[in-house]
Amino acid sequence: MSAAGIIFSNIHDNNIPELTRNRTMASVPFGCRYRLIDFALSNMVNSNISNVSVVTHYNYQSLMDHIGSGKDWDLARRSGGIKILPPFITAYANNVNSLYTTRLEALKSVNYSISKITDDYVVLSDCDVICNIDLNDMIKNHIDNNADLTMAVKKVYLNKAKAKINVLVDSDEDGKITDVQAYPTSFEGEADINLNIMVMTRQYLQEVVLDSIAHNYTSLTRDIILRNIGRKVYRTYRYDGYFACINSSQDYYTSSMELINDREVRNQLFGIKNRPVYTKVRNSAPTYYSPEAKVKNSLIADGCEIFGEVENSIIFRGTKIGKGSVVKNCILFQDTYTGENVKLNCVIADKNVVIRDNKNLSGDETLPFYLSKGKMI
Q1: Partners of 362 in the β-ladder
Q2: Which fold, 288-371?
Q3: Res. 309 pLDDT band, cuts 50 70 90
Q4: Nearest to 57 by CA among 6, 109, 134, 120
Q5: CB 305 within 8 Å of CB 288
Q6: What is the pLDDT of residues 44-73, one digit of tens each?
Q7: CA dist 159 to 67, 242, 244, 297, 368, Å?
Q8: End-to-end CA, the chain
Q9: What one-character DSSP code corresponds to residue 281?
Q10: With contact defined as beta carbons under 8 Å apart, do 268 and 240 qualify?
Q11: Which fold, 3-270?
């Protein structure tokens, strides 16, 4: 039994347009030193999936820089390894068919590469799935039940706002899917949500893609799964660990803050034996803390210089906090520079932001203040 992996890198870019203006969702920084794609990639590598394709469309320069040859994930291989798959667009393509917005359209755009897969099974995953899941167990569950498709789900409580951005899955006591509700507008209560991780046989995936091209299907949920419930064997795989999906800037901020404030979240993501989260390795000097520096309840990467006060914040590599500056409840990306006597609260600063002396910037937990890449204030 062998499995290949397919990761979608651009599907949810519109969820956080501030952070994806110059990068894909897959390469959005997270948790001091990681990118969102690191979790999906690590889940696959830890489950012995060594043939991984990343389907992308645009803004993928930073993604290619992060992945490189794949050696940091042990995917720099002569056979298999990791591949970036831009869509096939002819010189005569028009504006209608040159962009995709759904997973099924993305799969149709790389149909040629899918036809070359020789592994028995294929794992499909979004890039913004923040979890540490045992895909080996999920694939085994898929095989044992002779399923055509197995979908990872998690039972959560949803208010109406959360329900309308999720796909809800109904299943019987044996785990067989009986119904799917795509983005319901009036649901409230407990339900199984689709975690956007699926397992299919290679033959069934190829059949789905070819059928979708022939009939111009565009939605994997509405046009494939809903049409075939009862005719195909669709099953759920229940995941009970920590899971987060980035649906907005507030979700990104909240999920980041959970890393600081909840030890159980950190343990479920980074503390599972034999399932580490891999990322690109950079050789940086240790962070320097001046005698006047005060740091409390924060995650700080290497290569930083801290001369001021940092509390309840996430600080990426190469960031400098000037003398007399106070940084609270903030996320500062790589190479951010703050001058002296700067006050920051609930701020997300993208890469290479410069904040001059004596500035005072504040957002709110429900609406963090965002500074775009390279901004100088």
Answers
A1: 345
A2: UDP N-Acetylglucosamine Acyltransferase; domain 1 (2.160.10)
A3: very high
A4: 109
A5: yes
A6: 999 999 999 999 888 888 889 999 889 999
A7: 37, 19, 16, 30, 22
A8: 56
A9: -
A10: no
A11: Spore Coat Polysaccharide Biosynthesis Protein SpsA; Chain A (3.90.550)
